[in-house]
Amino acid sequence: MSLLLIAASPSQKSRSGALLAGASERLQHLGLAPSTLRLRDLPAEALLHADLSDPQLRLAIDAVARAQVVVLATPIYKAAYSGLLKIFLDVLPQDGLKGKTVWTLATGGSLAHLLALDYGLLPVLSALGTRSHVDGVYACDSQIAKDAEGNYQINEDIERRLAVSASQVFDRIPKPALDTVQA
User: Fold this and answer.
1) Which residue from 121, 128, 170, 175 could staple onto 97, CB 3.0 to 4.6 Å apart?
2) How many whole angstroms separate alpha carbon 38 and alpha carbon 86?
3) Are 82 and 9 in contact (CB under 8 A)?
4) Which domains are assigned to the chain?
5) pLDDT tens digits for range 70-111
6) How far separated are the first and last CA of the chain, in Å rounded?
């Protein structure tokens, strides 16, 4: 079973990255072993020009194709998911998420952008073939605060919501795939 986490923040350290790390931890507690793709590490020119001959971009697209579950984590900027995520989704094949379970995670400055996932991202994911969507988790800046060392800390409410949605991911994994993960 392949479980792919996609970090769509252009920043090295970010609240959406912390949210994705929290999701990864919850999935690992359930016995799942996700791999992570950081879109910021892909070659910018290849992404911008949709250069599908670029080896790194090709590997990233192939990782999505192999995944049964895709977890997307994005910051919300100006009421929309990150441009980095948009560019990457644009280079996926038209049916690039067909038959996959997708879990969306997002962070934003306030609750005012809560619906950016439902009205901005979910229609694009649907157009790419997603038919199974786990309850998304949206967190405000105040719910993922920086500690004295500059690390992001997820509050208890968000931790609880991550645990609930991670359980949904676990429940949607085909049983034969689950047997090979635990073997």
Assistant:
1) 128
2) 14
3) yes
4) 3-176 (3.40.50.360)
5) 999 999 998 899 999 999 999 999 999 999 999 999 999 988
6) 12
Task: State the residue for tokens 């038209």.
Answer: 94
List own/partner pairs for 49-54 with CB under 8 A and 24 or more apart.
50/90, 50/91, 52/91
For 50: left if phi > 0, alpha if psi spans -120 to 50, otherwise beta; the answer is left
The residue with greater pLDDT, 177 or 167, is 167
Residue bearing tokens 């350290």: 13
Structure tokens at 107: 């962070």
What is the predicted pLDDT for the residue at 117?
Answer: 86
> Which pLDDT does position 182 carry in this prediction?
55
Strands 152-154 and 144-146, bridge-based pairing: antiparallel
Dist CA 20 CA 57 (whole Å): 21
| Pairing relationship of beta strands 69-77 and 3-7 according to DSSP bridges | parallel
Bridge partners of 139, per DSSP, are: 107
